[in-house]
Amino acid sequence: PYEIAHAGGSVEYWNEEPGSAWFHRLRNHFRKLVWINPTPIERWRYTPSTDLVRELVEDRMYPLTPHGLADAMRFLAR
What torsion do the CA atoms of 19, 52, 35, 76 make, to the nearest 10 degrees? Predict the structure, then answer.
């Protein structure tokens, strides 16, 4: 989760801001926001970065499955 929580945390290049700053910008710009997670849902609890992202999107994380996409679209359409 270092790339999300800390400035300069990206493994590819130096970022002046942590990735979480971009999540906050997205949340402030869009009325509704979801995160589609390609990792199988059974493994979400074992990954600290998944917990952090789920927190940043206020629990609106959906699996990249037909059912998960349908649920995400239903949420966005409300």
Answer: -110
